[in-house]
Amino acid sequence: MNTARLIVRNLRHHARRHSAAAVGAVLATAVITASLLVGGSVRRSLTRTVDRRLGRVEWAVEAGARRFRADLADRVQAALGRPTAAIWMELAAVSVPEIGRRTGRVQALGVDRRFFAMAPLRPTPCRSRRPTTTYG
Known about the structure:
By secondary structure, this protein is α+β, with helices and mostly antiparallel strands. It is 49% helix and 16% strand. The protein has four helices and three strands, in the order αααββαβ. Strand 1 and strand 2 form a beta hairpin.
């Protein structure tokens, strides 16, 4: 028996295993290719969402447990020559007594007009007629 004949007999004998390995390799290649394509699409989608949400925001300074005075935004604007806005952020709870509903871990923001000047879209003010109680 020569080498070529041995190879042919071996391929025939193990044909199912070889075809299963080939199908597995094709499927793995398809999955990896699809994940790379979807990953790029998701990355572009997330980047577009972040750009829309941030508007013209370039820098943010968070004080943590400390507080900044609002005039810090004016001083930074004078120093950098770029528009700035002071934002007060606090975790809060919101309660609507009329219907007995309450939710916690709400992010409350206190902003002024300068904040909306930096936004890419015009704000839609909330004009609720129901009084709500917030807890800081």
